[in-house]
Specification:
Elements (H helix, E strand, L loop, with lengths): L1 E6 L5 E5 L6 E3 L6 E4 L4 E4 L2 E6 L2 E2 L8
Antiparallel strand pairs: 1-2, 1-6, 3-4, 4-5, 6-7
């Protein structure tokens, strides 16, 4: 899975890939981070999800 997200503090946009193990993606201000794995997702800070696998979250009413 590919998760596109942005930091709720600095608005830096990042991508996390579940196939990259122990890959902690951190925003520019270092207040938000995501470690996405096949079996879990670790989130720190204020993470705003933009899309999963290219599907825009705002277009999916069932996710809200």
């Amino acid at each position: 899975m590919i998760l596109k997200w942005k930091c709720g503090y600095c608005l830096d946009v990042n991508e996390s890939d579940s196939t990259k193990h122990h890959d902690r993606n951190v925003c520019k201000c270092k207040k938000s981070a995501v470690d996405l794995e096949d079996s879990y997702m670790w989130i720190d800070g204020k993470v705003i999800e933009i899309s999963r696998n290219g599907i825009n979250v705002e277009d999916c009413n069932f996710l809200n």
